[in-house]
Design goal:
heterodimer, A: mainly alpha, Helix Hairpins, 3 helices
Chain lengths: ~120, ~230
């Protein structure tokens, strides 16, 4: 069981860190504005995965006192990271929406999405 | 060249992030005793809300949720401001090809049940997984299906604004009622019922229904703004 948890720990934390790094890589090196916004949004999901993983409890159930689970508060996972991630998802959605509308506006003005072809934008 | 610099920096960042998080044991009761127990027991015993996440989002962090809904409203407003067009410039919807008759009848059949599922999710937000944000998003997907299928399907902008502002105002009014009757903003003013009852938790269910309407209206507005953008 311990061995299994070790592998799971590396897998879940590793994939969260990998998502953050992939998103940051995309946002830093890609030339297309759409890909930059996509990179930011991938980074967002890595952070959400990491926060949810911090609140996990081995063999835990969802923090819901439905019928039959009224007295199992000891086995419930932490509800606070889940509530924070619920907030963070909505804020991330708003940020992505505004960023994409700015991209649309830039495309309308310059007729291109590549940031190295837009003259008055420097990397 | 730039690519390799970025890769090197990211490798350093990844190494430090991993070494920090491998110190936190995964799945062990690290944070189990402390804040979590207080939230769980007061959500069960004082508020009588079975979904502890809803109790945190709507009651303990209710002010935070009000700010969150405001951020969503601001981003919807900013989008329609950034993508502003003069009235006679508003073009046809940018659908590339008309939908086939299978999609047309399927969408008409699915739309009421998607809306019903969304309403179910946000009414039972304090009893089961789900809540206002999730239910509102489900309703908005139903409208997205209709808008993509029928080119002449339109949503009245005034009606969306009305739904949104009435829901937001009622949220603030409930909060102020808590302030004047119990002494702090968003305090529970209604009687809490029994655990696992539909009418339990006092104002929590009502606030989550309002949040559901508000989120649905805002998301439909965002979808509508994007769809009327011609490429």
């Amino acid at each position: 069981m311990e061995k299994y948890l070790d592998i799971l720990e590396i897998a879940i934390y590793g994939s969260a860190v990998a998502l953050i790094l992939i998103g940051l890589y995309g946002a830093l090196t890609k030339k297309s504005l759409i890909k930059i916004v996509l990179g930011l949004s991938i980074m967002d999901s890595g952070i959400h995965l990491m926060m949810i993983a911090l609140g996990y409890l081995k063999g835990g159930t969802a923090p819901i006192f439905s019928k039959g689970f009224e007295n199992s508060a000891d086995q419930m996972v932490d509800p606070i990271p889940q509530a924070l991630v619920l907030t963070a998802i909505v804020i991330g959605f708003g940020v992505t929406a505004v960023a994409l509308s700015l991209v649309i506006r830039l495309y309308r003005h310059h007729d291109t999405l590549r940031i190295d072809e837009i003259k008055n934008l420097k990397w | 060249m730039k690519k390799y610099i970025v890769l090197g920096l990211l490798a350093v960042l990844g190494y430090y992030l991993m070494s920090i998080f491998l110190l936190v044991d995964f799945g062990l009761p690290h944070f189990a005793h402390g804040v979590k127990d207080v939230y769980l027991s007061s959500s069960k015993n004082i508020l009588k809300v079975s979904n502890a996440v809803t109790a945190i989002v709507v009651n303990f962090r209710g002010f935070d949720t009000l700010g969150e809904v405001t951020v969503l409203f601001l981003s919807a407003t900013a989008m329609s401001g950034i993508l502003y067009k003069k009235r006679h410039d508003i073009g046809e919807r940018s659908i590339l090809f008309p939908a086939s008759s299978i999609i047309r009848s399927g969408a008409k059949m699915l739309f009421p049940s998607i809306t019903l599922l969304g309403i179910y999710v946000f009414i039972h937000g304090h009893l089961s997984p789900g809540g206002g944000f999730q239910g509102g998003t489900i309703i908005a997907t139903g409208f997205l299906l209709m808008l993509l299928t029928y080119q002449n399907y339109s949503v009245s902008h005034n009606r969306l604004v009305w739904v949104e502002s009435v829901a937001g105002m009622l949220f603030v009014i409930i909060g102020l009622a808590g302030y004047f009757m119990k002494g702090s903003f968003l305090e529970n003013v209604l009687p809490v019922g029994e655990l696992n009852d539909l009418f339990s938790g006092g104002v929590i269910g009502i606030i989550y229904v309002l949040v559901g309407f508000k989120v649905a209206a805002e998301l439909i507005g965002i979808i509508y703004t994007i769809l009327h953008e011609k490429g």
